[in-house]
Structure formats: structure tokens, C-alpha cells
Design goal:
Layout: H1 2-20, E1 25-34, E2 37-45, E3 62-63, E4 69-74, H2 84-100, E5 105-108, E6 112-118, E7 121-127, E8 133-136, H3 137-151, E9 161-166, E10 173-179
Parallel strand pairs: 3-8
Antiparallel strand pairs: 1-2, 2-6, 4-9, 5-8, 6-7, 7-10, 9-10
Helix pairs in contact: 2-3
Keywords: Signal
Signal peptide: 1-18
Length: 180
């Protein structure tokens, strides 16, 4: 029974990544325990994502914390938005997670996507640049919540995915929230 449940979870995680990250290949998955809540962190390689050529060195880590982004709504992940309470659980966990991992930011390698999921909701950061990017946990939550507020009910029409796409042409990335 546990093998079937694991297979179902892996299948669902893979299908969500496939729509968010073309040609997704699972790099790692782990459970993060935050304040009595189990969040699932997955990292996918996105070979189908074209990385933009930039003027930024690909060997340097660029910090994109507090960098502005533009909200875009999408139907790429299906037809239903996530349950708002599940998204709120993730967003509220980022503040605690930041102190537990003893770092205000996380790094995402070029051409990869990091996803944090709980219940029906996933927050993700996708790096489309040639170099590694660092994003703040709190910005992932804030930008994801802004995208959700613009794209999910009670807005009509509603969408299953909200993105906050980088406004900087040299550091191309997406923060998103979607149905998992």
C-alpha cells in the first residue's frame, strides 16, 4: 500500500513539474518539517527551458531578493486553482523555514526549478538564466501570494497558476504558485 501511495505522489509531482518545467527530470525530493507541517521540496532539471543569454557572468551567484516582477496568470497547469488555505500554509511557513535553515535565501541552479508543496498548492522558483540565482524565502512567499491574489478566486475568470515573472531582462526567473 505504501508503495502505491509513493507512486501516486511521485506521479502527481512529476505531472505538475512537467507543465511548469518542460521536459522535467526529478533531481531530488525531500520532506521539510516546519512547525508541525510537512512540506515537500522537489528540485527538477528543466532541459526544455531555454536559458536566456545575459550580460551577467554565469559563474557568479546573482541575488534576486526584492527584485521586481510582473504578475501573469496562466492555465498551463490545468483548470482548477489550489485551495487557498494550502497556499497560506506554505506562505506562512517560509518565515519559520528561513530561521530553521539559518539562511534568508536559497539558491537555484541554472535551468532548474525548486518547488515547495503542501496539499493542493505549490510555490516554485524557476531559474531561466545561465547562472545560479539566490532568492529570499520571504520573497518567494510574498511574490507567490501576490500572483495568487491576482489569479485565483474570487477573481473571474480564475486560473490554476499565478506567475510573477522577472522584470529584469538580464536575470530571467519566475516565481509561481499553482495547483500541485
Amino acid at each position: 500500500m505504501s508503495f502505491k501511495l509513493f507512486s501516486l505522489v511521485a506521479l502527481l509531482a512529476g505531472s505538475a513539474a512537467a507543465t511548469l518545467c518542460p521536459g522535467a527530470s526529478l533531481v531530488s525530493t525531500k520532506t521539510i518539517h516546519v512547525n508541525g507541517i510537512d512540506l515537500t521540496q522537489t528540485i527538477h532539471s528543466c532541459p526544455g527551458v531555454s536559458k536566456r543569454q545575459t550580460t551577467t557572468s554565469s559563474s557568479a551567484i546573482s541575488n534576486v531578493c526584492t527584485t521586481p516582477c510582473n504578475t501573469v496568470c496562466s492555465s498551463a497547469t490545468g483548470i482548477l486553482p489550489p485551495i487557498q488555505a494550502d497556499c497560506d500554509t506554505i506562505a506562512n511557513s517560509f518565515i519559520i523555514l528561513e530561521s530553521e535553515v539559518n539562511s534568508p535565501f536559497f539558491e537555484v541552479a541554472s535551468g532548474t526549478q525548486q518547488t515547495i508543496s503542501f496539499g493542493t498548492c505549490s510555490f516554485f522558483f524557476q531559474n531561466l538564466t545561465p547562472g545560479t540565482l539566490a532568492e529570499c524565502w520571504t520573497d518567494l512567499g510574498t511574490n507567490g501570494e501576490a500572483a495568487a491574489a491576482a489569479c485565483f478566486p474570487p477573481n473571474q475568470p480564475f486560473f490554476p497558476e499565478g506567475l510573477c515573472a522577472s522584470a529584469d531582462p538580464d536575470l530571467t526567473w519566475n516565481v509561481g504558485v499553482s495547483h500541485s
